[in-house]
């Protein structure tokens, strides 16, 4: 397996967000200097300089970070005491554990596994779970464990969700729905306790249901695209991470629309996964700040 291009020893990422007020940048910068760190990336955004919401992402290099992390966290807590802020600190040398849920369509699944094998995503993939077995051999060819949890007919998915939770709980940092054609219940999301990222075509809610590209062709659409977002109780309405579109014409068949749609889905999902894995996405209400 190729070494990841995005894992940096002795690098940490500090995420800060909350109420904006003067002095936050100066306090954080001085603290990093005080602990012997060197800032290598600094992004910030305020939606209103007079009492608005503030967001900050700082990547810094600090020799011996892992060993001294408890001391560094104490310094951060002391520095931000008195500011109305929340913060989190991650070790950028440690890849996040990403599980993938999939169904029959495998274009997003195989694309993520290929990018992971190339070292293009700073993650490990402890498992793929699917309600179908069609991709089992392909997944195992990447050296990734494959688990089949059959779908359950009817609205009550609790039995299959319980099996999936048993596999995921404590073993993953986030989950990706790579065209997983099952609706996850609110109870499942609450018990899972890690972020879930989804991908879908851009036709929602215009062409909901089966054969959306056929419906789009009949309607004469000129743009198709994809949206990747965090999953919430509200179906397909969670905070958006990334979107993209491609132009199409009257001459494109429904099959060509579907092929091009699958391509943009792969690109959008891979970018969303990369940015999440790099701690570039801050959730705020039902939208995101992506640095």
Outline the structure in words:
- There is one protein chain.
- With 291 residues, this protein is of the alpha/beta class.
- The protein has helices spanning 24-34, 65-80, 107-118, 136-141, 158-168, 186-192, 212-219, 254-277; strands at 11-19, 38-46, 53-61, 85-91, 96-102, 123-124, 128-130, 146-148, 174-178, 196-201, 223-230, 240-247, 281-284, 287-290.
- Strands 5, 6, 7, 8, 9, 10, 11 and 12 form an eight-stranded mixed β-sheet that branches.
- Helix 4 (136-141) links the parallel strand 7 (128-130) and strand 8 (146-148).
- Helix 1 packs antiparallel against helix 2, helix 3 crosses helix 8 and helix 7 (212-219) crosses helix 8.
- It is globular and about 60 Å long.
- It starts with 10 loop residues before the first strand and ends with a strand.
- The mean pLDDT is 93.
Major beta sheet summary: 8 strands, mixed
Question: How many beta-strand elements?
Answer: 14
Average pLDDT: 93
Distance from N terminus to C terminus (CA atoms, Å) equals 28 Å
Percent of residues in beta strands: 25-35%
Low-confidence stretches: none
Binned, the helix content reads: 25-40%
Give the SSE string: EHEEHEEHEEHEHEHEHEEHEE
Rg measurement, Å? 21 Å
**SS field, number of helical segments:** 8
Oligomerization category of the chains in this entry: single chain
